[in-house]
Amino acid sequence: MHKVGFIFDLDGVIVDTAKYHYLAWKKLAEELNFDFTKEHNELFKGVSRKRCLDILLNLADATATEEQFDTWMVEKNRDYLAYIEKMDASEILPDVPKVLDFLKTNNIPIALGSASKNAQPILEKVNLLSYFDTIIDGNSVSKAKPDPEVFLIAAEKLDVAPKNCIVFEDAVAGIEAANAGNMTSIGIGDAKILQEADYNFNDFTEIDLDFLRKLAKV
Ligand code: BG6
Ligand code: MG
């Protein structure tokens, strides 16, 4: 068993895809005559695609047959993928490679723990796939964050005890999931929103190598 393992959320931690989710949901919301704002989009962070559509329908006071629901899910994802298609390494958030390089150099296992079903193509697009020893995403889990399932599976695949896993997350549901899994949680973003995290940083530029050495026990 490895001493420690690092688990990264994708959207909002490694890449800023929230803006693309926002544009794709906004387009669908227009069909529902609903003015979808950036504030609404905050509610969608870390939340599965299906749950997002449930929330949107609720906000728009709309209902859908099962068939219509599925059609809208496909439509939203098609529009989202059109944005993803154009992504490249320039969209990696600042200093993410610094942290990943440090971990790789020190042979520390790295997992992705994301709610997205598009995680693999996004990592390919931004050229980071090779850093990850395992990818646990929306296709691998039955229970969404804040359930710890995604991170517990990641820990198992990395062969690291959950209490020795360190999770980077930008969503409240993700911090709750890491805490519920008995892992060390690191909030990336607004500390007031992510106040349940064990540590808080606005972004990876605030994380220095000494801090990583301490966490990684190297
Ligand atoms: C999460 C995002 O990472 O993935 C959510 O924060 C998104 O906003 C969820 O809804 C599911 O993503 P996808 O790519 O499967 O639609
Ligand atoms: Mg996220």
Structure description:
This protein is α/β, with parallel strands linked by helices and about 220 residues long. The chain is about 45% helix and about 10% strand. It has 9 helices and 6 strands, in the order βαααααβαβαβαββα. The chain has a 6-stranded parallel beta sheet. Strand 4 (about 165-170), helix 8 and strand 5 (about 185-190) form a beta-alpha-beta unit. The chain binds 6-O-phosphono-beta-D-glucopyranose (BG6) and magnesium ion. Magnesium ion binds near residues 12, 170 and 171.
Which features would summarize this protein structure in a list?
single chain; 218 residues; six-stranded parallel beta sheet; 9 helices; 6 strands; binds 6-O-phosphono-beta-D-glucopyranose; binds magnesium ion
Gap between N and C termini: 16 Å
Strand-pairing-aware structural class: alpha/beta
H/E element string? Answer: EHHHHHEHEHEHEEH
What is the residue-averaged pLDDT?
A: 96
Order of strands across the main sheet = 3-2-1-4-5-6
Main sheet specs? 6 strands, parallel
What is the helix tally?
9
**What is the approximate shape?**
globular
Beta strand count: 6
Spans of at least 5 consecutive residues whose pLDDT stays below 50 are none
The distinct ligands, each listed once, are:
6-O-phosphono-beta-D-glucopyranose, magnesium ion
Helicity, in percent?
A: 40-55%
Radius of gyration: 17 Å
Strand content: 5-15%
